[in-house]
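User: Please predict the structure of the protein below. I'd like the answer in structure-token form so I can feed it into my own downstream comparison script.

Assistant: Understood. Taking the following sequence of 264 residues as input:
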Amino acid sequence: MTTKKLLCAAVVLTTVLTGCSSAPAKTEKKDKTEEVSKKKTKDSKKKTKDSKKETKKNSEKEETAKNEENTKEAAKIAEKDTKEAQKQHAAETKKAVETAHNKDQQTNHKTESTTHKHEDKKDNKVENTASKPDTSSKPSNSQPAKQDKEEHKHNWEKITAVVHHDAVTHTEQVLVRDTWTEPGITQFRCGCCLQLFDTADALTAHQKSYVMQGDYSHTGSSTVDIKAPTYHPAEYETRTVVDKEAYNETVVTGYKCTICGATK
């Protein structure tokens, strides 16, 4: 009986000890699992954040490329509109010149037609007058004068005027003198008597004269800057350049008949 009790006690003690040893292991395993899970979650968040940054960066690049493409397209459209406007202006100018030329031709044609009509009318009247017998014995002095005044061939003379056109000019800046530096003035001083000389040769001659006398105290020297170099900027002047000389143009303003004074 005592042996059985001892065996039971040993079994119970072993079970308790086994449970106590396994509990910390399970807790430690659970902590490691949670730590790994947290790390995976953190890495996932970091990847998501990096993915968002990359997406945003790509979106900005796409938007920039799109803006550049729109700018180029707008520039092409503007250039196309400019070319079309220039073509239209050239066509309108050409049309205006042709219209003016045609108008001049029509005017000349009308003048010639009017002249021919007057000539035909005068010839017809002369023929009718010649065919009719002279039924009136009284001479008419006023009728020929009236006919000469009303029926004649117009002698059209041009009426002109002189139009002055001023010269076409523009101004521009012309270089007169380039930049230059005015040299400074330097003198040479004897180290003994402090006498100043304009050139180094003059100072040397001064020192030699004392050396020849056996006095070597005047061998020292130094330079003195009397005036520093002066910088002068470039000089420009405004000149008028003639692109087109002035000229006078004689234009036709109308026509006047030298016989009756009629104008057109």
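That's the full token string. The helical segments are 2-131, 142-150, 200-212.
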